[in-house]
Design brief:
By secondary structure, the protein is mostly helical. It has five helices and two strands.
């Protein structure tokens, strides 16, 4: 079900914390799966704004991913989190492109993979884990 969040704009001025809190409330309320879409990095890329693209990634980490992970850790139950862009939008072309996107899957019961230290395109390629069809990635995530 879509959830209305006051101040949600789809830009770098969106209510990141409010969106994270809405996701947290759904999970605390018993939902098994929540999809949170944050559009700011894509919009910054369309405008060719590298400074705000970097800033939006930092805000997403601090105001989105961090609070959700913290809330889930406090609940003390097993959870998984997948983080990825929905597509590439390089600043150099300011539009969507078809390259495969990097993804990260966090499992609260697993230790970190020591060979992968960063979440970026180069580390994703180095991992060797690739899905040519998006639904296969979701299957992989749900089966882990």
């Amino acid at each position: 079900k879509p959830i209305e969040v006051k101040g949600a704009t789809g830009t770098i001025l969106t209510n990141f914390r409010g969106k994270a809190n809405a996701a947290i409330n759904e999970l605390k309320g018993g939902k098994d799966f929540v999809y949170l879409h944050l559009e700011a990095t894509d919009e910054c890329s369309h405008h060719g704004n590298i400074k705000d693209k970097i800033r939006s990634i930092e805000i997403i980490d601090r105001e989105g991913i961090g609070p959700i992970k913290e809330a889930m850790d406090k609940q003390g139950t097993h959870y998984r989190m997948m983080i990825l862009p929905d597509h590439y939008t390089p600043i150099s072309v300011r539009t969507h492109t078809a390259e495969p996107v990097p993804f990260m899957i966090y499992n609260s019961l697993s230790k970190a993979d020591s060979k992968i230290q960063k979440f970026d395109e180069f580390s994703a390629i180095e991992s060797g884990l690739y899905f040519d069809e998006g639904f296969k990635l979701l299957d992989h995530f749900l089966k882990k």
